Amino acid sequence: MAVAQSGSAGLELPENVVVSRLDELASWCRKNSLWPMPFATACCGIELMATGAAKHDLARFGAEVFRFSPRQCDLMIVAGRVVMKMLPVLQRIWQQMHEPKWCISMGACASTGGVFDTYAVVQGIDRFIPVDMYVPGCPPRPEQLIQAIIDLQDKIQLEGTLKGREFNTRQRQNQKRALVESPEILSLDASRNPNLQRELSNSATNPN
Amino acid sequence: MTDSTETKEPKAVENPHVVALVELCGALESSTFRGQQRVVVPADKSLDALSLLKSRGFDLLIDVSCVDYLEYRGAKHRYGLVYLLASTAGHQRLTVRVFVDDPEPTVSSVVPLWEAANWLEREVWDLFGIRFTGHPDLRRLVMPEEFTAHPLRKDYPLQGRGERHNFPVITRDRS
Asked: What ipTM, to 2 d.p.?
């Protein structure tokens, strides 16, 4: 936050007065009251629990309020591998979270698929949902996750306005279809999916 | 196809359950390994043979599984089903193998005999594509319902055929 040490225009301010912008105040409130949504599917979830527990005490950073309802959360922590049967669930939960919202991809599996380079495991959730922060490790230690949350707080401080206009555009609201069944998700029809077409052509030229 | 050191040609065996099976099905291939009896039953007689075994005391179905013997050395058939049976009263175990082949690997369901076979056979159908006739609800168990392949077959690529990338992409603008 911009802190005025003393009034530069000749105005003497007391020591306990801070001058800032309201936008930065809003961002400061947001970043210090992150409510995580634990999407824990594997061993990273154990480290996620340890991060929230007494020894590492995520409450020091204002992010200890784990909520299991996406409606109440603004930080999704995807901890563990996501299989293709789980990905529609992940996308649906992400769509059910309210703006402003952020996503941390915790661990090698959530970020890249890790060692699970098989037909069933999604090779990185950032292919299908937006990710703000990646945490390396297998699984990452709680200190790494805390560092990711601190870095995310820095990122949150740099963006955002008081009224949240940037989270509230018509485009975002129109596309919010959390309660609509997406036929695309349920379909495995190659003809309608450019990703699958690219994958098929790659595997045809480079059989592996 | 089988453990080469243990398998013998059809022969007279002492195990009374195998003797009863031979009376039902004719000559059968069987072997023992460390006291565990194993017997191969023809696919068209599998339901009769397994119901005979149930009537002889094998009241517990431990597992139904499958092995794909594609390009396996010495294999005569493509798929080998495994039925692991146990007799809780007689303290006996028995492994029953049933071999089936492409293009339509089919075998009778044993759900009428053991209710436990319901999900076990659904799993085998899901991962190997063995069709169980008479199964009350032969749907996929572990893979998504819209999945089309049977991924534990040896001719299915490990990394799949692109199914894992076939999802809509949600970006910042349209979440």
From this structure: 0.76
